[in-house]
Design brief:
The protein is of the alpha+beta class. It is built from five helices and 14 strands. The strands form two sheets. Strands 4, 5, 6, 7, 8, 9, 10, 11, 12, 13 and 14 form an eleven-stranded antiparallel beta sheet that branches.
């Protein structure tokens, strides 16, 4: 009933989506290029065949902008949309402000390093997905050229993330799912020595039953930590040092969906969680 397209590019994605819409199937796409070049005609084709073309993942980085406009402002006439440019645009504008031309900046190598890897082996009748990503770079200037001082610094960043997810059947209609993940992100904000960072770890185990009596049982744990060193914009000395703000949570839920007929859905369940946290700060 629904076609989901994540290929990217115009061909062959455009032809496939046109055939899907023309045959009465709704489409969900994250294809930025396709929406930018063919969005109007594809929307017209979807309306003609009384189906939907949904593309929120291809606009605003997945931020729910489109549903907010369509639903929250459905009775209004939109005259103008304003926003804030992203980091890449800030970098380009900062370089052009310093005297570089647009073509040079667009093709410039900022010295960024990015590494992404993943494997997805089969586990009998199940599977596992292991993925990792590392990004670092000198960043761009967040302070306008005319306002920079010797203490000003680029927004240098260094981050990594790892994740492992495994799914395996334990019966013909029961599935076991497990997930662990960890990440770390460190950045420099405006002045040299003004550091901020966040790290976290997640783990969960879930059992899903898809038989006549459907059920869903989940237990999970989560750890987070945040640090931030703020410098005075006048003296450039530390004014606040949040050395650590560790927090954690554990919880679980269970849901049972007994068979009550095709016209009704009955869900019975419980959800429990416990959170803890504190802050280590020097003022």
């Amino acid at each position: 009933d629904v076609v989901i397209e994540l290929m990217g590019g115009l061909n062959p994605a455009e032809g496939w989506l046109r055939r899907a819409l023309g045959s009465g199937k709704s489409v969900v796409t994250a294809n930025k290029q396709l929406i930018a070049y063919r969005g109007s005609s594809l929307l017209a084709l979807a309306a003609k065949n009384k189906v939907q073309l949904v593309y929120g993942a291809a606009v605003a980085g997945g931020v729910p902008v489109i549903p907010g406009v369509l639903q929250g402002l459905g009775g209004d006439q939109t005259v103008r949309v304003s926003g804030i440019v992203n980091g890449t645009c800030n970098y380009i504008l900062s370089r052009m402000e310093a005297g570089a031309d647009y073509a040079t900046v667009l093709a410039d190598d900022r010295g960024d390093t990015s590494l992404t890897a993943g494997i997805a082996p089969r586990l009998g009748n199940g599977f596992a997905v292991l993925s990792g990503q590392w990004d670092r770079g000198p960043g761009f200037w967040t302070t306008p050229l005319a306002q920079r001082v010797p203490a000003s610094a680029r927004s240098r960043y260094d981050s990594w993330a790892l994740g492992l997810r495994a799914v395996a059947p334990i019966a013909s209609d029961i599935e076991l799912q497990a997930r662990i993940a960890a990440f770390n992100d460190a950045q420099t904000l405006r002045f040299a020595g003004a550091l901020t960072g966040m790290s976290g770890q997640d783990a969960s185990v879930r059992v899903v039953g898809r038989g006549r009596w459907q059920f869903d049982a989940l237990v999970y744990g989560q750890l987070r930590d945040f640090n931030n060193l703020t410098l005075s914009s006048a003296t450039f000395a530390p004014t606040n040092n949040q050395r650590a703000t560790p927090s954690g949570g554990v919880g679980g839920k269970i849901e049972l969906r007994p068979p009550v007929g095709p016209a009704h859905v009955l869900r019975l369940g419980a959800d429990v969680r416990e959170l803890t946290g504190h802050e280590d700060e020097d003022l």
